Amino acid sequence: MGQRVAIIGIGQTDHCYMRTDVNHEQMINEAVRKALKDAELTIKDIDTVIIENMDLFEGHYLSDGMTVDGAGMYLKPGLKMNTGGTSGGTVVATGWHHVASGLFETALVIGWQKQDAVPSISALLTAREPLYDRGMGAGAAGLFATLALRYMQETGCREEHAALARVIMADNARRNPHAHLKMRLTVKDVMSSRVLVWPLRLLHMSPTSCGSCALILANEKRAKKAAKKPIWIKDLETTHREQSVFRGGCIEPEPTLSSIEVAASNLYRRNGISKPAKQIDVWELYTPSSWAVFPWMEHLFICEKGEAWRLVEKEAIRIEREIPIEPSGGVVSTNPIGASGVIRVAEAALQLRGEAGERQVTKKAETAVATAWGGCSWTVMHYLSNRL
Amino acid sequence: MARRVGVVAVSKTKYGEKPELHLQDLVFEVVQRLLEETELRFTEDGSGIDGTITCSQDHWDGWTISSKNAVDAAGGHLRSEEKVAEDGAYALYYAVLSILGGHYDCVLVVAHTKESQVDGRLIENFGLEPFYLRLLGLDFTSCAAMQARQYMSAYGITKEQCAQVVIKNRRNGMNNPYAYVPEILTVSDVLNSPILCDPIRLQEAKPVSDGACAMIVAAEEKAKKWTDKPVWVEGMGCCYDRHYLGYRELKEPLSLKEAARRSYSMAGITNPCKEINLVELSEYYSYQELLWSEGLGLCGPGEGGRLMDSGDIPINPSGGLLSGVPVNVAGLDRAVEAVLQLRGEAGKRQVVGAKTAVLHGTGGVCGQMHCVINLRRGF
User: Would you state the pLDDT for residue B1?
Assistant: First the structure.
């Protein structure tokens, strides 16, 4: 095997709806500077820079070229990745491979999204196959409404439970200084918010956010000299799937989620994880809707099929409880899409460092799983530990 | 390097405008040919292909997350697939890294683009700085014209020398069954073709083209098992320059020099012109072959024209991009051509006795970022 890889620097912007005070490059630069400061390094210590962007969202072609100065890429090697919603997870994986290869001691990985520049739905509308699927329109709302309805029908979960999951996320987000929506919500507030596609309501969905998140990865030699406690990315897994709604989407049982199950099975098998709910201390999941948290938990084998809503009902996913899920407030509170996958890893690492401030989980946190989700129900998953 | 990585097999489509084909058809064709040739399959137990790395651009596909076009055709269904959103040479670069890191032993790399379905000038305009440059209506050709001007006037490169690049590459294309526009041209044919943006003329720019190419790369032990003719990746380097043209010295391919320095030092090459038997580089315009030759260290600054006149080293025996290779596919196609040469399978375009090759891919305005990879025959 190659070099072992640790996170030694973490930086993220304070995410919000509009960043009219900066351009995309300046926004990226904020996160990069914070990550360098956190690691007590300068850009000279960085061997390679990996960035992600979904070109059509901001309307830039080869946007990595445009952000060279802000990202600190000038005269450095590096490349750009784009796998849609999973881009943030993928870019961390790409940085991991760079350091693991032994050719680079340090890598800076950057995720970003500036949704105030262009309405992202205009890009999302081109996400489907043009001949058969595109005419149906796209976007996440229809998908999650189907998922929610199905989940209710099959498990006995009710709208109140999804609302409660959203309330918990909002409570977590209020403890996170970087979160976008820091709302004080009740179950009633969520259930009386506007219907998008029943049973999906406005407050069930993630917001459109601007933000950037940067991580500095390092090999074992550099990690041991790091300013902060290194958090090791022990293993990772990418699982994509074919695209058509008709072939893989609404018709098959468990339509859109099997990539999570496949990725989790592979990751757990390689790392000797047989009881994930016990062996993983913190979960940072990419749940674009509060309805997604139930099937996501089940497909990650945190609980049996059809049982996740009961755990939520018991509020077992709160920061203080036994299965803390998304202590950051999650993607429903903050969603700068390309950055969201990197933020999941960053937040998980902060928890394992014990530096998550008010959102620090109560239980002792030694292992974490961070996921990214997007594309056509694609999954990228990282397994983190504070021990080598 | 921790372990050696070798090329097991390559495949490509014939290039040209293909309005009858879906994007997935392009990918399927090249992947299917590789699977038939190698008899490898997408497996979970290490007995075949472990992962897929694709290369395409959302803008060219008119499709956000363009790798959706490649996922099922390239074995990504409920498996690993990652998309490099840069030139195809970077996809090979990343594939090699992911094998060096030990996560995979064998990776399928595939790049596709269908240029004919969009107006590339509009896309290139989106590739420029949004507040000042984009509104001017610039595209990559008009920016390249400024680079060509600066380069030619600084070093006394003549327009005839630039025309000779086109003549040589299109003639080489006559020997390449995959080339789109092989033809015999004269200097006056080139220099009397319509002006796109002075000094660049129609015949001096890469034609619009569609197609795909693919490659299977594997760790040494598996590469040796699966092919009698392995080609080893000896060195790799890539590098970014600044974006804003006013910050750059356009006649100095700074980032290419740095990418080449990295690759050569990994491969232990000190005198590239002597130690490398053939070069496959990405010339989107005629003058770029001369300028990139300098950046690759094949000659000194301003000597690109002289190098071409001398014919000291075979450059683009395939016919290069000027014979018609799609953007994004370009860099990976350079790798495919270099591998065919090193395996002695390049047919009429074969460089006799080629043992080492360097290939080059580039992206961005006026060659902002470059990727250089050194290959060596392994049998």
Answer: 65
What is the ipTM metric for this complex? Answer: 0.97
For B305-333, what is each residue's pLDDT tens digit?
A: 999 999 899 999 999 999 999 999 999 99
CA distance to A168, A324, B229, per residue, from A364 (Å): 20, 11, 54
CB–CB contact A74 B100 (8 Å)? no
Rounded to whole angstroms, how far apart are CA atoms B22 and B25?
5
Return the structure tokens found at B180. Answer: 């789109």
Of residues B71, B101, B126, nearest to A100 (C-beta): B101
Q: How far does the CA of residue A116 sit from the closest CA of chain B (Å)?
A: 15
The band of A241, judged by pLDDT with boundaries at 50, 70 and 90, is: confident
**Is B331 in a helix, a strand, or coil?**
helix
Residue type, A110: I
Looking at the DSSP bridge assignments, the partners of residue A111 are A213
* Peptide bond between residue B317 and the one before it cis (omega within 30 degrees of 0): no
Residue A287 pLDDT: 95
Distances (CA, A) of A351 to A175, A324, A348, B180: 13, 11, 5, 56
DSSP string for residues in B163-185 = HHHHHHHHHHHTT-TT-SS----
Q: How far is A221 from chain B (nearest CA, A)?
A: 16
Taking only the tens place, the pLDDT of each residue in B158-174 is 999 999 999 999 999 99
Which residues 222-281 in chain B show a CB within 8 A of chain A? 236-243, 254-255, 258-259, 262, 266
Token couple for A46: 């960085």
Question: Is pLDDT at A1 greater than 50 in this prediction?
Answer: yes
Give the residue-averaged pLDDT of A280-301.
96
**Is A256 in the B-facing interface, judged by CB distances under 8 Å?**
no
Q: Is B234 exposed, middle or buried (0-12, 13-18, 19+ CB in 10 A)?
A: buried
Q: What is the mean pLDDT of residues B119-143?
A: 93
CA B253 – CA B293 distance, rounded (Å): 10
Instruction: With CB atoms and an 8 Å threshold, state whether B65 touches A240.
Output: no
CB neighbour list of residue B6: distance below 8 Å, 6 or more residues apart = B217, B218, B219, B220, B223, B224, B227, B230, B231, B232, B233, B378
Predicted TM-score of the model (pTM): 0.97
